[in-house]
Amino acid sequence: MNKHALRIAEVFHFLDNKDITLGYRKFLDCIIDTQHMDLYNEAIAITDWKEQHPQEVEPLIEKCKALLSKAENIPVEETTVTSPILTATNLVKSYGTHKFTLGPVSVTIKKGQVYGLVGENGNGKTTLLRILAKEITHNQGSLQFEFKDKKLSNFDLRTKLIYIPQRTDVWYGSLKDNLKFVLANYGVSPAENETRVLMMIARLGLWNYKHLKWSELSSGYKMRFELARTLLRQPEILLLDEPLANLDVLAQQVILEDLKAICNSVNNPIALILSSQQLYEVEKVSDKVIFLKNGKYKDNTEEEIDTQKLLIVEIDTTTNRTQLLELFKELALKKLTFNGGVFTAEFEPDVPFNKVLKALGESQEQVTYVRNISNSTRRFFVS
Ligand SMILES: Nc1ncnc2c1ncn2[C@@H]1O[C@H](COP(=O)(O)OP(=O)(O)OP(=O)(O)O)[C@@H](O)[C@H]1O
Fold first, then answer.
1. Which of 22, 58, 64, 294 has its Cβ near the most Cβ atoms within 10 Å?
2. Percent of the chain at pLDDT exceeding 70
3. Does the predicted interface ipTM exceed a cut of 0.90?
4. Where are the domains of the chain?
5. Tens of pLDDT along 343-354?
6. 124 close to ligand 1 (CB < 6 Angstrom)
7. Comparing 86-299 with 311-382, is the CATH topology the same?
8. Which atom of ligand 1 is nearest to the CA of 275?
9. Chain centroid to CA 272
10. Where does the pLDDT of residue 306 fall: very low under 50, low under 70, confident under 90, or very high at 90 and above?
11. Cα 23 to ligand 1 centre (Å)
12. Is the CB of residue 235 below 6 angstroms from any atom belonging to ligand 1?
C-alpha cells in the first residue's frame, strides 16, 4: 500500500468507529492530497452541509466514504524525502559583548519532520527561529537550504521559507477575501482560487468564521488564519514562534495534530520547527525536541554519555516531603526537590517506574498526577 492508500484506509477506520472529530480533518487531508479541484468542491459542499447539520453523523459518514472512494482512484505522487532541506552547522549569534550569545547550534531537518523548540523565557528561541528564517544574520557557522527549486529568487525564498512571529499584523476586510488575495498574487484563476481558499478554510476549521474581520476573531482563530494564509503559499519550511500562545488546552492539541498532519502531506511535505512553552503537548507530535538554556543547545535524542540515565519522576501530591521520603525509603531515591507546585524525585537508574507508582498508590494522600520524565525534555528544565 502506498502512503495515500494508507491514509485513506486510516480515515475509513475513523469513520467506521464514528470518530469524526479527528476523522473529518484527516478526510480533508486525503482529499487535499489529490490536488483535484472537482473533489475539493465536493469536500467543500460536504463541509457546508456538515456545519448546517451538526447532529447528523451517519449521513455525514456516508458522504465522506463516497468521496473517499473516488479519492482512492486518483493517483497521488509521493514526494520521497532523502536529504535535509535545512542544515545549520555551529551557528553562533551574539547581540554584543557581555550580552546574550546563542550557540553553537547545529540542526538538520527534512521535509515532513516536526521539531519542537523549548526553553525558558529569554533563552534564544526567537533568535534561533529568526536566524533560520534569514530574518537576522548569524556571526559564525553555516546555514544551507535545499529547496525543490535550486535557484530561488528572494521573493520565492519568502514563499518557501516562512516564519510566523508571535505577534502578527492587523489586516482589513474579511478572512476569506484576505486568503483569496494571496492566491490572486500568484496568478491563480478566479475559480481555482475560490476552491483552494474554501478548502483551506474548511481544513483549518475556519468555516464559520470566513466572513469575519480581524477585529472579530479570537487570537486562536487569528493564528489559524495566519496558518491558512501561509499554507496557501505551499511553503517547504515553516518556522512558527509560539503558535500555541493564547490557545486553550484542547485547541493546542487540535492545532498541533493539524500541523503534524499537514506537514506530513503525501505530495507536499513541510519541515516544521515551532517554539512553545507547552512542553508535553509539543513532545507528543515532535520528531525531536530542541531545548535551549542560556543559548546552549540540547535535544531529547542525544544520548547522555557522561551520566547514567536516572529515573526522574514528577509528582503533584498533597503529601509532604517527609512522607514522600518515608514512602520511597526502599527505592534508592537520590534526590527530592520541590518547586512550589510539584515534586521531582530522582532515583537510581535500575529503579522501575511501577515501583514508584506502587509506593504512591499505597499512600493515603491525594496524588493528582505522576509522570515519568526520564526521557522528556522536561528533565533539562529541572536539572
Ligand atoms: N535585537 C536584540 N538586541 C539585543 N538583545 C536581544 C535582541 N533580541 C533578543 N535579545 C536578547 O537575546 C536573548 C534571547 O532572546 P529571545 O527572544 O531569542 O529568547 P526567547 O527564548 O524567544 O524568549 P521568550 O520565550 O521570552 O520569547 C534575551 O536576553 C534578549 O534580551
1. 64
2. 95
3. yes
4. 3-72, 86-299, 311-382
5. 889 998 888 999
6. yes
7. no
8. 22
9. 7
10. very low
11. 40
12. no
State in Å: Cα 127 to ligand 1 middle: 6
pLDDT value at position 72?
93
**Range with the lowest mean pLDDT among 94-98, 283-287, 377-381?**
377-381
**Mean pLDDT lowest for which of 57-66, 125-134, 147-156, 203-212?**
147-156
The domain 311-382: what is its CATH number?
Answer: 3.30.70.260
Q: Using a 6 Å cutoff on CB, does residue 127 contact ligand 1?
A: yes
Atom nearest to 277 CA in ligand 1: 25
Closest among 77, 36, 87 to 267, alpha carbons compared: 77
CA dist., res. 199 & res. 204, Å (int): 9
pLDDT for 298 equals 79
- Tell me which of 120, 125, 282, 290 to substitute to probe ligand 1's pocket, judged by most ligand atoms within 8 Å of the beta carbon: 125
End-to-end CA distance of the chain: give it in Å, rounded: 45
Q: Which atom of ligand 1 is the closest one to the Cα of 96?
A: 4
Q: What superfamily in CATH does domain 86-299 come from?
A: P-loop containing nucleotide triphosphate hydrolases (3.40.50.300)
Cα(377) to ligand 1 centroid in Å equals 21
Q: What does the DSSP assignment read for 11-69?
A: HHHHHHTT-HHHHHHHHHHHHHHHT-HHHHHHHHHHHHHHHH-TT-HHHHHHHHHHHHH
- Give the pLDDT of residue 307: 57
Sheet strands (E) in the chain: 86-94, 101-109, 114-118, 140-145, 161-164, 237-241, 271-275, 288-293, 296-299, 311-317, 333-338, 343-347, 367-372
Instruction: Give the other-Cβ count within 10 Å of 378's Cβ.
Output: 21
